[in-house]
Amino acid sequence: xxxxxxxxxxxxxxxxxSHLDMVRLFERALRRAAWPVSLTGGFNRRPKMVxxxxxxxxxxxxxxxxxxxxxxAIEPGGALAVLNASxxxxxxxxxxxxxxxxxxxxxxxxxxARYLFAWPTGGEELARRWLALExxxxxxxxxxxxxALRTIDIKPLVxxxxxxxxxxSGILKLTVASGQExxxxxxxxxxxxxxxGEGGFPEPFCIHRLELxxxxxxxxxxxxxx
Amino acid sequence: xxxxxxxxxxxxxxxxDREILRRVSKPTRYCAGEWxxxxxxxxxxxxxxxxxPDAYEVGMSHLGTRILYELLNSEPDVAAERVFLPWxxxxxxxxxxxLPLFSLETRTPLSEFHVVGFSLQHELTYTNxxxxxxxxxxxxxxxxxxxxxxxxxxxxPCCFSAECVAPFFDLMVLGDGEPFVAGLLQALRRCxxxxxxxxxxxxxxxxxxGVYRPDRFRVRYAGDGTIVEVAGGRRVRKSxxxxxxxxxxxxxxxxxxxxxxxxxxxxxxxRGCTRGCRFCLAGMIYRPCRSRSPEEVVRLAxxxxxxTGWEEISLVSLNSADYPAIADVAAALxxxxxxxxxxxxxxxxxxxxxxVELAKQLExxxxxxxxxxxxxxxxxxxxxxxxxxxxxxxxxxxEAAFDAGWQGLKLYFMIGLPxxxxxDLDGIADLVGGVRDMWRRQGRRGNPRISVSVAPxxxxxxxxxxxxxxxxxxxxxxxxxxxRRRLKMPGVRVHWHDPRASRLEAVLARGDRRLSxxxxxxxxxxxxxxxxxxxxxxxxxxxxxxQAGVDPAHYAHRPRQREEVFPxxxxxxxxxxxFLWRERERAMSGEVTPDCREAGCHGCGVCQLxxxxxxx
Lengths: 226, 616
Fold this sequence. Notes:
The structure holds two protein chains of two kinds. Chain A is α+β, with helices and mostly antiparallel strands. Chain A has helices at 19-32, 76-84, 106-109, 123-135, 186-195; strands at residues 3-10, 49-51, 60-69, 91-98, 110-118, 140-144, 149-153, 158-166, 169-177, 206-216, 219-221. Chain A folds into two domains: 3-103, Pseudouridine synthase I, catalytic domain, N-terminal subdomain (Alpha-Beta Plaits, 2-Layer Sandwich); 108-221. Helices cover 22% and strands 35% of the residues of chain A. Chain A is globular and about 55 Å long. Chain B has a six-stranded mixed sheet. A four-stranded parallel sheet of chain B has the order 15-16-17-18. In chain B, helix 5 links the parallel strand 3 and strand 4 (151-155). The interface between A and B is medium-sized, with 31 and 31 residues.
């Protein structure tokens, strides 16, 4: 069964859709587009798809990925156009490519994600808070596991940080661990930034997922890299 | 150049998007942009708001609204936009920011539409109507509105007896909406919108069949609280669509992006039902039975599927197993759609083996819950209410369902039906016990999961039980308690309706105009979302009754005299009062009345109405 990998964007009102809403939305759009999608077996037959990583509600993204299995090969250019014509505003497929046979499960391969954070009251304030946060030796966040609350340090899971200033605005670009093994939630970074200054921000913080990275042959690559 | 209105609109847009939607639950309720939603905006000359007085999830599941949305938007000069009641957190946010209620498609304030049409599906949504009007800045009383305000109208089954909200509407539409829409658009296109347009338009609309203008009628009351007469106009006859095939069915239903109550494509098999269950409002007011041809059903379903991509298609009606070609239609659709992972379902099933066969056929793609509604526990009581099923049917259906692999069933019952005794309540427990025994028959181990829903009976206008008293709240509580004791069996779960909500429903369902004050008071005191148990506030309603000096028992718990004038006597659903009384008499002597499609005409009067309307 041929597998195709889609990179899509989630913008505007679509940022309020939950992961489950997105699954349903793609299933329906694929049927409207009449893709020859393969079905899972069992009592509840659904289109066979694997999403890379759920995006928290409220975030925008230009780096969402999903693998779709089809019964017969499709012509990527045409299929992409037809699918985009079947998607509601706010959701757009940016790229589409066949996945070579034997490639790992997309969800299991995710290792890192790159996010953009914007502080609503301006770059000045963001820069101040970021400096304060960087000086902290440990970035402790509390996580709820099945049994108890657990405190962990997420600082080692932040791989790359870059603060860009342009005029009065500023954007923080972070590459952090993401996936089933170790994971940094964007909301946790926001909580830490809140601790590093006076006053909070309107919920949710302006966060955008810019890229997602998977592991292939010991290397981090974007899911569509060949 | 942007007008002041556009600038204000842009401000709202930003305010809503950047701030408010980020802090409320389920913001998608207010975002639109769904597949097949139609944002025409200002390019259309006539703007009509389809207002559903409940949450997005409920309103989006309503077939009637889907029909009207598509019918209206198929006209190039008409923009129909949806508006629902915002959830309480959004309501507070909007009130705090001074935002008016807006339509989903173009975020236009409701007050800027030409017509605002409410759908009245249930009595416990009446305070929601007032909340929506108020949030829109539209005066709730029709008498207080003038040329600056939209026309506020209502349709839906409640309109046949919605006197307790009559003063809030400029007009109501009785019966089928499709024929009315044609007349409405004609009148709107003729309207000059100059000074005095409201009165002229109302006079014009009054000529359309099914249109009821509450302000035409005056009610005179007697000393004992009953009605002497409703005078001022001629009796209003409902609008009737003669053939379903004559109107285009909705094939571009709006596909929501969040979960809704009935998240599926709906195709209407037939409208009306002539089984004649004596408690059933829908069974009386939607008569006669009008079927869609099987070819048209299949065409609408397949075209609807291509346009929506929905994973489920529901073949809806008041009793879909009664559709003669149901098996063929299901087979044709499944042949086409099952390979695509799309399932076909029917909303309600008769409790018999045929229905289980049908359900078995339908579960090719996914299995759904089986629901049966025996309504009463004994044959004697089922004969009184004319529910044409017996214990054997139900038990056989249960056996067939278990044999086919279902692990459980859902069963619906009512309590407080006319003539009910303790032995009828015990009969419910016996019946449920019998269903459990069926499980053991084939040596199955453990217990089936049986969910039993119990609702107190609410007598409705235009039914044979319109003369009956509802049992009191303490009586309901007692009977529910008895049932719960008897139904303490492994695997059986019992759910019941709040008796206080059922009593309120009974008051409003047969209310007169004096109750409008109560509804208004209750809303002012904070009542809304009364149909949601987490928001229902019986204490507010009690205060509202007290403030207005109205005794709810007069409406809910009082048996009516045969000749008593009813608040809805001037509204004609086509089924004659003498037929309803005859049915009541037969009920009291336990005589069943078979379906007129099989046993011949019982003279309910609706077919005569049709022949008079069509002039043949």
